[in-house]
Write a structure and sequence with these properties.
It is a multi-pass membrane protein. This is Oligosaccharide flippase family protein. Keywords: Cell membrane, Membrane, Transmembrane, Transmembrane helix. There is one protein chain. By secondary structure, the protein is mostly helical. The protein folds into two domains: 223 residues, no CATH class; 234 residues, no CATH class. Helices cover 84% and strands 0% of the residues. Helix 2 runs parallel beside helix 5, helix 10 runs parallel beside helix 13 and helix 13 packs antiparallel against helix 14. The protein is globular, with a radius of gyration of 23 Å.
Length: 481
């Protein structure tokens, strides 16, 4: 299968689950308000960080050791032992500090944190085992299924009167259902491990844990720090802006996920230099969706946030900053993907360490000094610095060229789209004042117009984009020739 088709399939599968989650968030925002959403976001942040501490790279280690084919049943058993100890430790800490946790979130949710911590690590273990058994496609399907099941259960519970607790129960039940389904598909047969199996997991995990922490830092450290300095309402608005930004990153994630095994294979068979072409492809298309998304957020951010409710309009500026940070971070992620693929995780480790330290420090300083907008600025600045380091290390080992021309064509198409949206919005708002009552429909029309303009112009000015589309379609389109 062509890489473009593989990326597209991954993208579509993720898009389905994320789209339903996006719609569900709109309902929760309107029904429950920004304060409950802020409390929900803080609970998930706590679970994310406690879960990361409860895994410490062991998910990657389990995948690696099982995939090698030597004593897979015993490595599964070793994984169960290690993760059981870690989850018990984390749960005990939650129980001991339950008063502080409840105060931080603003609701009595310590029991839910323990429950969600268990189901999260349970699913993480199943996912790692599926990947180790080369069932990545099953893991992807279950991931999308989890999002759909979670949204449906949460909506049903909120409809019947459960607020924050309904959302948390929906989260837990969805994880249990999909993890158990994965366990059934896997046909798990663990065996009693020996000491060297556990030691082997530790030896791998001690190098892989920082990559997980880098991802967790980018995804949630700003929300975690916001919980210390601002009200749950501001956290709720920020979390909505962040989820809307992440929705645009699905395609970039699809590219890095698809290209990693190909880079790894070609660099192992030939040399690190052989991965240059794939690195250039990753950089070429990493911002394909995020670039027009950034321009669109600049011109439509207030109306996009209005979909969630009037209180959320305050997050329009944050939305633009977060999408800009995500665009830079996506390029950073593509380069780190190359470093890991050519078997230089030590260099990726250095980049991750720099990013994490700067991100945490800037979040505390900027949120303290300028408020919640400082969190978005901290994310943007730390992502930019991380990109500089990632470029420096990757360029030393892989002689790739930055595809300036293609990226500029994407910007030309996006800015042309932005101009069209600006004119259409100003003209329509000036002549049809009743549009405020139909904001969602208005946004859908403007977004559809923008997408049409962007891709039409890009197809017209980029031969490489036309060729990529043509080569990955199962049928021939005369206009692309």
């Amino acid at each position: 299968m062509r890489l473009g088709q593989t990326s597209a399939i991954y993208f579509v599968s993720k898009l389905v689950g994320s789209a339903l989650g996006f719609l569900a968030t709109i309902y929760f925002a309107r029904e429950l308000g920004e304060v409950v959403l802020g409390q929900y976001a803080l609970v998930l942040v706590l679970v994310t960080w406690l879960g990361a501490a409860g895994k410490l790279g062991f998910s990657s280690a389990i995948t690696k050791r099982i995939s090698e084919g030597n004593d897979p049943e015993k490595f599964i058993g070793a994984g169960i032992v290690v993760m059981s100890v870690l989850i018990s430790t984390m749960s005990l800490l939650v129980i001991i500090f339950r008063s502080q946790i409840n105060a931080y979130v603003g609701a009595p949710i310590a029991g839910f944190v323990v429950l969600l911590l268990f189901v999260t690590l349970y699913k993480s273990f199943v996912n790692a085992s599926l990947k180790g058994n080369h069932l990545v496609h099953v893991d992807a399907i279950l991931s999308s299924t989890k999002q759909v099941v979670r949204a449906i259960i949460q909506i049903l519970l909120v409809v019947v009167g459960f607020g924050l607790s309904g959302m948390l129960w929906g989260y837990a039940v969805a994880y249990i259902i999909t993890a158990t389904l994965g366990l059934w598909i896997l046909g798990l047969r663990p065996a009693i491990p020996q000491k060297h199996h556990v030691v082997s997991l530790f030896n791998y995990a001690k190098f892989s844990w920082l990559g997980t922490m880098r991802s967790r830092t980018f995804d949630s450290v700003d929300i975690a720090v916001l919980g210390v300095f601002v009200t749950q309402g501001f956290v709720g608005i920020y979390s909505v802006a962040w989820s809307l930004s992440k929705f645009l990153d699905i395609f970039g994630s699809a590219i890095s996920t698809t290209l990693f095994p190909e880079m790894s294979k070609i660099s192992a068979e030939k040399s690190a230099h052989a991965a240059a072409g794939l690195t250039e492809d990753a950089l070429t298309y990493g911002g394909l969706i995020l670039i027009p998304g950034l321009v669109g957020a600049y011109f439509l951010g207030d109306r996009l946030m209005l979909i969630y409710g009037e209180a959320f309009v305050a997050g329009a500026e944050v939305l633009t900053l977060l999408i800009a940070a995500l665009l830079i971070y996506t390029y950073n992620k593509q380069l780190l993907n190359t470093l890991n693929a050519i078997d230089r995780p030590n260099l990726a480790f250095r980049v991750n360490a720099v990013f994490i330290i700067i991100n945490v420090i800037l979040n505390f300083v900027l949120i303290w000094q300028i408020g919640w907008v400082g969190a978005a600025i901290a994310t943007l600045v730390s992502a930019s610095i991380g990109l500089v380091f990632a470029f420096y290390y990757t360029q030393k080992l892989v002689p790739f060229s930055i595809p300036y021309a293609e990226i500029m064509r994407q910007w030309v198409a996006a800015l042309s789209m932005g101009l069209m949206i600006f004119i259409a919005r100003r003209t329509t708002e000036a002549n049809f004042t009743w549009l405020d009552s139909y904001n969602t429909a208005f946004i859908i029309v403007l977004v559809a117009l923008g997408a049409t303009v962007y891709f039409t112009i890009l197809l017209g000015i980029s031969t490489r984009f036309r060729t990529t589309i043509k080569n990955n379609l199962p049928f021939d389109i005369q206009l692309l020739n």
